[in-house]
Amino acid sequence: MTTPDAESLLAETRAFNAELERLLATIPAVNTVPPEESRRARREGRGIFPPPVYVAEARTLEIRGPGGALSLRIIAPEGQPTGTFLHLHGGGWTLGDSDAQDLRLQRLARDTGLTVVSVNYRLAPEDPYPAGPDDCEAAALWLLSEEGQDAVGAPGPRGIGGDSAGGQLAAATLLRLRDRHGIVGAFGAAVLQYGAFDLSMTPSQRLWGERNLVLSGPIIAWFAEQFLPTQDREQRRDPDISPLFADLSDMPPAIFTIGTEDPLLDDTLFMEARWRQAGHPSELRIWPEAPHGFLSLPMSVAKVALAAEHDFLRRTLALGAR
């Protein structure tokens, strides 16, 4: 693949943003319709995100979760797996599914040799906090168990990560493993993509305003209300909800990915600084004018950013070139 130069990449991103903003103005904002309607629209490919493509090699496995059966989407690489990657999808804790990004996860598996395990955690508002984090914690513990290792069939190093709400869930899962179970070092790398790390709202969230570029101020507030219907702003600073406020000792090396046209920009800037200050290797990739959710959009910048993340995983987990 020929990598576009920075100037052409930026020009394409700007043009894409203009069309994206125009399209978003023609459809109801996610905070104005019931969640089930937005879920149905995403499943049918109506809206800004491409319709889901289900890859043939993916399989679904059910494990026992804290709320009943918990579904995992598993995509293995070509050839012998080098390890595993626990993936937590985005969607404001309210939207999204573990099978809605097969192509992106297939690329991760093929580029790194890791078997990807994506968690279909419970969603708000039907199941608000702590249901989703509880499911992610349970999936991580299962993956680390002998049963999980046998079922996935991918011994070796492990990574963890997710986008947006999934970034928050990945960080919270690492903290829960450490604080509740005394487990550190089980995941050797974290991939944190434009995560929401402060649900009491960072300055970039509060200053963003009404502009709808995937997220807007009202949309951010609405997602938080679905996930945290009873918590006030101070309660939302609990480290289990807002990992930015956590003790970040004993965390793995991490790569942070963010675009400058993202209301969650400060979340990533602040979290990466605190991660680094805690003594952990970190890489910060800031993509000029990329919007929130860009890794799931048909943009050249998404391809380049994903390549950087997969290279980080190969280097950090010593997976070798593929």
Can you put this structure into words, describing what you see?
This protein is of the alpha/beta class. The protein has a single domain, classed as Rossmann fold (3-Layer(aba) Sandwich). Helices cover 39% and strands 17% of the residues. It contains ten helices and eight strands. Strand 3, helix 3 and strand 4 form a beta-alpha-beta unit. Helix 4 packs across helix 5 and helix 4 crosses helix 6. The protein starts with 5 loop residues before the first helix and ends in a 6-residue tail after the last helix.
Which keywords apply here?
322 residues; alpha/beta; Rossmann fold; 8-stranded mixed β-sheet; 10 helices; 8 strands; globular
The total of beta strands comes to 8
- What structural class do helix, strand and pairing data support? alpha/beta
Task: State the name of the first-level CATH class.
Answer: Alpha Beta
Strand content: 15-25%
Mean pLDDT across every amino acid position: 96
The oligomeric status of these chains comes to single chain
The number of helices is: 10
* Shape-level CATH architecture: 3-Layer(aba) Sandwich
**Low-pLDDT residue spans:** none
- The CATH homologous superfamily is termed Alpha/Beta hydrolase fold, catalytic domain
Helix percentage range: 25-40%
* Net shape: globular
Number of domains: 1
- How far do the termini sit from each other? 14 Å
Sheet with most strands: strand arrangement = 1-2-4-3-5-6-7-8
Provide the succession of SSEs: HHEEEHEHHEHEHHEHEH
Report Rg: 18 Å
| CATH topology tier name | Rossmann fold
Sheet with most strands: 8 strands, mixed
